[in-house]
Amino acid sequence: MKRLSGTNAEIAELLYQEQLALAKQNDDAEATVRQIIAAVKEGGDQALRDYSAAFDQIALQKLEVEETLIEAAFAEIDPEVLTALEHAKENIVSYHQQQLEDGFEDQPEQGILRGQLIRPIERVGVYVPGGTAAYPSSVLMNVIPAKIAGVKEIIMITPPQKHFAPAILVAAKLSGVDKIYQVGGAQGIAALAYGTETIPRVDKITGPGNIFVATAKKQVYGLVGIDMIAGPSEIGIIADSSANPKYLAADLLSQAEHDVRARAILVTTSEALADAVEMEIEEQLQKLPRQAIARQAVEQNGRIIIAENTEGMFELMNQVAPEHLELAMADAYDYLEKINNAGSVFLGHYTSEPIGDYYAGANHVLPTTATSRFSSALGVHDFIKRIQYTQYSQEAVKAAEKDITALAYAEGLQGHAKAIEVRNDRS
Fold first, then answer.
1. 109 is in an annotated binding site
2. Catalytic residue at 323?
3. At what angle do helices 310-320 and 8-23 cross, to 10 degrees?
């Protein structure tokens, strides 16, 4: 892992330059994705079959995953995995139910009524990655908040497989997916956005994916809503002298094994702890089945930052604005107020990030590449719309006329002013 030291200002500038470089990584995929989207718009189902043959080496007869395959998955799944999924579902439901919003209505003055309606999005598409690993947890995390919000129809897409991991199909059924289609990549995002003969258009697309999926979501945004443009997985850890280097190394590697582009960042004031963590990482890498991926990630994108003091640790990590943030500190809860930018926070020496990935109930679809500076974890709020309403009586319009028309004329919008004046018998 690359070690950064110096003044806080010097390290902050280095981190900023790295963030600029990360932001440009998706540029190379733009042209390829644009071509794929155009092909799906034009060719529909046949384009999806063609891309499946080219990218996945699977000749698809049917795009929809049949109910018999889902039933077979329940018969095939490891009973312990099924139980774990059911327990995780309970925790995700109990957490996200607390995010439900109510509308409101008030009457600030006689003749004036104001309010807000809460309405669910009607149809949502959920992307579930395939590739080097199957993620049933992503199914639960995307679908359950949508169901709680009241979304009427949830369409799931996932890359075609010769044999689907049973847990993926079981998780879809447990969480309430209405239909599953075996299509992945940028072509799957295009199908959800524009519709094909088989796959219906949706109103919003959520779910993580690779660089082509992320770029496709960016390009169809506006035609449909999206949750976020997610980058590689990240973990940041703030550690004091009470931290266990064995725990820190394991947690850093837990994210590094996702992707060669994953980022693992440790901030501490202790050179001795930094040395011990580096030794532990090397030892643990030797035993990790996904060693090749994790090693490349930590060597290229791993950072150990030596801060000047405790305050500096938080200042620098707030700039990193990581997807996952662990506080490996004594009395970690007492430092929670110092965190301004993070997707999800894990407090204390025993709250390892995978607890959040799988089980605790807080969502694991999180903002990456410093976007937690302005965005949040996926939740029920992502699947609702807020619709405002207002009613003024004739008397209330007359009382407000002077203020409204003064602003309208100041903006040079005489038509706006006339629309008020005409209601008070003026030409």
1. no
2. yes
3. 10
217 and 246 housed in the same domain: no
Domain that holds residue 103: 29-228
Say yes or no: 295 and 215 in one domain.
no
Tell me the pTM.
Answer: 0.91
pLDDT 10s digits, 30-41: 999 999 999 999
User: Is 324 within any annotated ligand binding site?
Assistant: yes
Q: Please, which contacts does 352-355 make with residues 24 or more away whose CB atoms are closer than 8 Å?
A: 352/247, 352/250, 352/251, 352/254, 352/326, 353/235, 353/251, 353/254, 353/255, 353/324, 353/326, 354/254
Residue pointed to by tokens 């390290």:
11
Which DSSP state fits 54? Answer: I
The answer to whether 46 is annotated as binding is: no
Give pLDDT, residue 425: 74
Q: Look at residue 68 and give its three-state secondary structure.
A: helix
Instruction: Judge if 57 and 201 occupy the same domain.
Output: yes
Furthest CA-CA distance within the chain: 84
Catalytic residue among 324, 326, 353, 364: 324
In terms of domains, do 131 and 239 share one?
no
96 is in an annotated binding site: no
324 labelled catalytic:
yes
Indicate the pairing of strand 112-120 with strand 384-392. antiparallel
